[in-house]
Amino acid sequence: AYVVTDGCIRCKYMDCVSVCPVDCFYAGENMLVIQPDECIDCGVCEPECPAAAIVPDTDPRAAAWTALNAEYAAKWPNITEKGAPPDDADAWNGKGDKAALFSP
Ligand code: SF4
Ligand code: F3S
User: Fold this and answer.
1) Which residues fall within 8 angstroms of residue 52, CB to CB, at 6 or more apart?
2) For residue 5, what pLDDT band results from cuts at 50, 70 and 90?
3) Given this model, what pLDDT does residue 56 score?
4) 45 lines ligand 1 (CB under 6 A)
5) Looking at domain 2-77, which of 1.10.1040.10, 3.40.50.300, 3.30.70.100, 3.30.70.20 is its CATH number?
C-alpha cells in the first residue's frame, strides 16, 4: 500500500483524493491517511501531492507512518472529494519533520 507521511501535516492539499480510484483516503484535522487494505497500489496519488508526502510502503520514509495510516484510517471519516486546503498550507510545505504537529 501507499502511505501518507508527515509531509502532509498542515498542508493537506487533498489533490490525492481527486485521483484515487478506490477512495481509500481518510481525513483527520490536519492530515490524511490511506487505508492499506483498500489501497490497490496504483501509485497515481504519489506524483499528485504538492508536498511529496505520499510514498510506497517499501520506501524507508514510510516506516514511521505505516502503522499510523492503518490505525487512523479506522478512526477518521472517509474523504472522497477535495476540499479547501488550510490557508497557510504553502507555508508548511517542505518544513521537514512535522511529526510533532500530528493531530489525532
Ligand atoms: Fe489510492 Fe492508488 Fe494512492 Fe492507493 S496508490 S491511495 S489506490 S491513488
Ligand atoms: Fe496530504 Fe498531499 Fe494529499 S498534502 S492531503 S497527501 S495531496
Assistant:
1) 7
2) very high
3) 98
4) yes
5) 3.30.70.20
CA of 49 to the centre of ligand 2 (A): 5
Which set of grid coordinates corresponds to residue 56?
510506497
From atom 2 of ligand 2, which residue's Cα is the shortest distance away?
49
Could you tell me the distance, in angstroms and rounded to a whole number, from the CA of residue 1 to the centre of ligand 1? 8
- Ligand 2 lined by 12 (C-beta under 6 Å): yes
Which atom number of ligand 2 is nearest to the Cα of residue 48?
Answer: 7
With CA atoms as reference, report the closest residue to 98 among 52, 57, 43, 67: 52
Beta bridge partners of 2: 56
Set of cell numbers at residue 15: 489533490
Residue 13: band (very low, low, confident or very high) from pLDDT cuts 50, 70, 90: very high
Residues counted in the chain: 104
Does the complex come out with an ipTM higher than 0.95? yes
